[in-house]
Amino acid sequence: MNQPIRRVAIFCFLLIASLLVSSNYLQVVNADSYKSRVGNKRNVYDAFAYPRGQILTADGTVIANSVPSGGLLYKYQRQYPLKSAYGNITGYKSIGYGSTDIESVLDGYLKGTDSSESVANFMDTLTGKSKKGGDVQLTLQNPVQQAAIKALGTETGSVVALDPTTGAILGMYSNPSFDPNGISSNNSDVSNPAANGLANDKNKPNLNHAIQENYPPGSVFKIVTAAAALDTGMYTETGPTGAPATTLTWPGSSNQLPNENSATCPGTDLKSALEQSCNSVYGFVGDKLGAQTMAEYAQKFGFNNPSLKIPLSVAQSNFPAANQIGSDAVALAQDSVGQNGTQATPLQAAMIAAAVANGGVIMQPYLVDKETAPNGHVTYKGSDHQHELSQAMQPSTAATLDDMMQSVVANGTAQNAAVAGIHMGAKTGTAQRGTNQNPLAWFVCYGTANGKKVAVAAMVETNNPNIRGDVSGVGFAGPVADAVLKAALGVS
Amino acid sequence: MSAAPPRPEEPLIPKRRNTELLLSLFAVAIAMFAYANVGLADNGKLPAGMWGYGAGLAAVVVVANLLIRYAAPYADPLFLPLAIFLNGIGLVLIHRLDIYDSETFAALHKVDPVKYHTAPTGSTTNQLMFTALGIIGLACVLLMVKDHRILQRYAYISMVAGLFLVAVPAVLPASISSANGAKSWIRFPGGVSIQPAEFGKLLLVSFFAAFLMAKRDALRVASRRVFGLNIPRGRDMGPIAVCWVLAMLILVFETDLGVSLMFFGAFVVLLYIATERTSWLVFGVTAFIGGAVFIAETVPHVQQRVNNWLHPFNGEICAATAPAGTHCPSDQISQSIYGFATGGIFGKGLDQGRPWLVGFAKNADFILVTVGEELGMVGLFALMMVYTLFVMRGFKTALLIRDNYGKLLAAGLSVTFALQVFITAGGVMRVIPLTGLPMPFLAAGGSALVANWVVVALLIRLSDSARRPLPPAIPLSDDELRAMRLAAAQRMPSNAVPGRHAQPAAPQGPDGPPRPHPLAQPGLGQSGLGQTGLSGPGGPGDPTPPGASEATQAMPVRPAGAAGSAGAGDPTQAVPAQPRGYGEQTMMRAGEATQAIQTTSGPDSEPEQGPTESYTPVFEDEEDDVRTRQTPAPGATPGDAPGRPGPSERRYGP
Predict the structure, then answer these.
(1) Hey, are the CB atoms on A4 and B429 less than 8 Å from each other?
(2) Taking a C-beta distance cutoff of 8 angstroms, is the pair A369, A243 a contact?
């Protein structure tokens, strides 16, 4: 009988060995795909079981942290001390509604599960520290942000400030914003109405309009057209272009491209046309450069890039492709003055100014200054990852444009926005939208003071129909950009 | 009688009781460590009851150890520590899950004191109580069952009682017996519920062992050969058919694939061990799979379990998408999968995972999820190795033990235990459809725990008799030998043999004249032709232990050199046709008892043979089951060499 007993013993061992194989399959081989399934409530519980990392500004202001909620399963909840100031940058982290923006993009790091934190986590496990997520410090500066909030006031609009030499985004605000505390509450009696309110708000306050919405840039785009004109060598700063001074017309077409308020341009050279923002000249120049060249330069400035991440995803700014425009000179002229098919995010507008300020080089814009693991070890530094996004134009072209934009402040449309003590260049814009909408007021500028250089783009929507005729870039967006520029440069 | 030569020394065999004590205390220490771990993870403090709990377990260990020292001194030293380890870890896991229940209650109570007014009682206390009961059960079995063969006597009673226990939940109304889709419980008023099948499995295994021991020759010999398989005769299919029908009935009426599979599996495996015929395995497995598939196709609740197994995520998908009020399948399997996946290799640490997401039966059938999630694959492997070790010691006992009933019983208990581990863990880990068996020793559930402690007691008892050394032989003086030969010759006048050699008595049946000495019996009793029973002085140099225990001091007879671990395999020492050693004798007992008892005249029977050997098997089969091993020495006489335990069976100890 012993032989069969031995065989049965081996069989029993194989039975248990099959359990070991199954354990291996469940716990190692397939573990990740199982864990990430939607039905696994542990993922949600985990996110609220221990403190998530903080989100801070560059000056150390806490803009998101985790506080004990008193609940059993969801032990912590997310809190945003500055409420709506950073609402559409940090996003929210909610039990029922998931996460958005930084909370979503850097979720792994804030949760403490990012691979860069694994060493720190392992050490913490060994030393018995309680689990915690890593902190994320943004490049945003709270004074800049507060200046933007104050300057925009109740106006709908966006403003972006960045350091042209590094690409670091110093301020970014779009009004209206929202208070993420409501939807992030662990109490569904609070979070559900807040979420419904957000979903039904047609202003989309939870959308970061500075990077996730496209607008016609209007005259701001003339910087790109000017750069193309100068860089290709077809035109010079002060040489006459041969364009009509008042209204651009096309033979055989009833379309016209008049200047703002049908004004007559003081000169047809690029410099004076930029000062007065003459559509007739820049439309003409755009036509002469051709769709191919315009599209090429638009792309160099960052248009038509679908994959820009800061690390939040940035909506693609558009300039119509050459084959799309074809031989349609009317469309090309309108595109060249920032109308028609041209669209830009406020961040893109700031990047245009930054290119001029930085010798033609556009640095990759970024928002994350550093990531600090729970044990204090810095695992990521934004300054180590600065890189050139593109060379928009030759340095000499940038110098020429710099001169032209300074003269916009000195002699042109941006005179009212000049700030004492700041060496600045600027460009205004008034972008037409539909007939029933106020035009957009744009103002992009850059300035140097205290050894710092900052580029700013401001866009104000001015929804009051009564002032529709009075909307101008310098009048509405100028003060906003100035306030942000002063805050960023530390000029009082 | 003249003075006998000096009695040889008893062979020295390590009893390993101190090893057992140390290992058991180590097991307690591990459980205590885990307990402390839970407390520290929960609130940063050592649990309040930790020292009391540890002291209690340690006391249990010491008591059990002392008891085994007394009642089963040669028992395998691993059974107790392994069982204590599993039981202790089980207590910790249940305690860990209780913590969640009481915290949930506290949170709910704070919100709605009216609705949530009674705190959950927790299962840890209950489990502790049943651990104590289990130890008492162990003590009772060890003290009352002095020899496992006594159980053989109750074969049919075991069968009836076992069937009753297994069947009773199926007959009772569902309100009493149904839980979690399986009708395998009996709930008593007052919250106590038991799973009678846990005890039923013990009784049925005991019955299977006794039954197959008697029937094995009929089952193994008669057959036809078809396609390389030995097909048993139709009428021999009876027992397996009955068992199959029974298993299918359990499956249908109790919806309990686990119990059904366990019983039928144990029966088929024992049948295979008893008959050494692979064909029985083929039949059994085919029949069970066929029946189970058919039932899974037709009976809705079994079907549902199979569906949950094949599509574990349907439940949660349904719950998330279907309109409210839809009846969705259980999501327990998917929660269990998430638990295991979350645990990963090293686990989250005790009290740091969320195994309670499994919900119902989280501390019973699904307790392995807690192990997987919080102790990780490493912890799960360790646990499985402990189970494996337990089962393998059981099989080792089955190999070592010298009687066939003991072999079948030990193997049956081991197989049942292994099957239960596999069925339960396999269900939780989605190897097979989920069934309703509790994880042995780990799961909360009093009846199962007590039943498992009884299994431990039986294995300890079996391993004690397996490892117990053969008592030394007392050589006979020449006078005694001469007297014996004379007596033998006188008793068998028709078989007179010339010379000094007395012809041993052939089996005479009940009518045979009384033999001069009972202990000459075993060897002579079954001797065949030409066998010379006592061929001269056995030689004091190679003592042969008689079949009795150390207690039989005055035992006079027993020449020869067959036994003793040294001389066992040595043909030069073994006098042909000598009475066999202890092992053979004990094996003979059951089968030959009829003759033995009836031809042995009372007063000088050795005391220990009393209750055990007076058992008369109720089965007709009078075969001597010594002929287990057909292999050795083709020329050997049937009663001699084949029955002699081979070297492997002579080894003692682990």
Answers:
(1) no
(2) no
Element (H, E) at B540: none
Query: Residue B635 corresponds to which tokens in the numbers above?
Result: 């020329």
- Structure token digits, residue A456: 């700013």
Query: What's the rounded Cα separation, in Å, for the pair B115 and B418?
Result: 44
Spacing of C-alpha A242 from chain mean position: 38
pLDDT at position B493 is 58
Q: Rg (Cα) of chain B, in Å, rounded? A: 28
User: Interface of chain A against chain B, CB under 8 Å?
Assistant: 1-6, 8-9, 11-13, 15-16, 18-20, 22-24, 26-28, 30-32, 34-35, 37-42, 45, 71-72
Q: Within an 8 Å CB–CB cutoff, is residue B340 touching chain A?
A: yes
Please list, residue by residue across A209-231, b when 16 or more beta carbons sit within 10 angstroms of its beta carbon and e when fewer do.
bbbbbbbbbbbbbbbbbbbbbbb
pLDDT in tens, B85-101: 999 999 999 999 888 88
Instruction: Please report the pLDDT score of residue A351 as a whole number.
Output: 93
Q: What is the CATH number of domain A212-369+385-489?
A: 3.40.710.10
Domain-by-domain residue ranges, chain A? 212-369+385-489
The alpha carbon of B551 is separated from its chain's Cα centroid by a whole number of angstroms, namely 28
pLDDT of B229? 65
Annotate chain A with three-state secondary structure: CHHHHHHHHHHHHHHHHHHHHHHHHHHHHCHHHHHCCCCCHHHHHHHCCCCCCCEECCCCCEEEEEEECCCCCCCEEEECCCHHHHHHHHCCEECCCEECHHHHHCHHHHHCCCHHHHHHHHHHHHHCCCCCCCEEEECCCHHHHHHHHHHHCCCCEEEEEECCCCCEEEEEEEECCCCCCCCCCCCHHHHHHHHHHHHHCCCCCCCCHHHHCCECCHHHHHHHHHHHHHHCCCCCCCCECCCCCCEEECCCCCCEEECHHHCCCCCCEHHHHHHCCCHHHHHHHHHHHHHHHHHHHHHHCCCCCCCCECCCECCCCECCCHHHHCCCHHHHHHHHCCCCCCEECHHHHHHHHHHHHCCCEEECCECEEEEECCCCCEEEEHHHHCCEEEECCCHHHHHHHHHHHHHHHHHCCCHHHCCCCCEEEEEEEEECCCCCCCCEEEEEEEEEECCEEEEEEEEECCCCHHHHHHCCHHHHHHHHHHHHHHHHHCCC
The Cα of B213 is separated from the nearest Cα of chain A by a number of Å equal to: 11
Residue B314 CB neighbour total at 10 angstroms: 17
A219 is a catalytic site residue: yes
User: Which three-class secondary structure state does DSSP give residue B566?
Assistant: coil
- How far apart are alpha carbons B198 and B443 in whole angstroms? 13
Sheet containing A423-431: give its strands across: A169-175, A157-162, A452-460, A440-449, A423-431
Burial group, residue B213, by CB count within 10 angstroms (0-12, 13-18, 19+): buried
Please give the full DSSP string across B270-288, using - where no structure is assigned: HHHHHH--HHHHHHHHHHH
The Cα A288–Cα A227 span in angstroms is 14
Domain boundaries, chain B: 17-467
- The single-letter code of the amino acid at B364 is A
pLDDT of the residue at B68:
93
Model confidence at B179, pLDDT cuts 50, 70, 90, reads low
Q: Give yes or no for B343 touching A (CB within 8 A).
A: yes
The verdict on pTM exceeding 0.95 is no
Indicate the SS3 state at residue B224.
Answer: strand
Q: Is B431's pLDDT higher than 80?
A: yes
Q: Are B447 and B195 in contact (CB under 8 A)?
A: yes
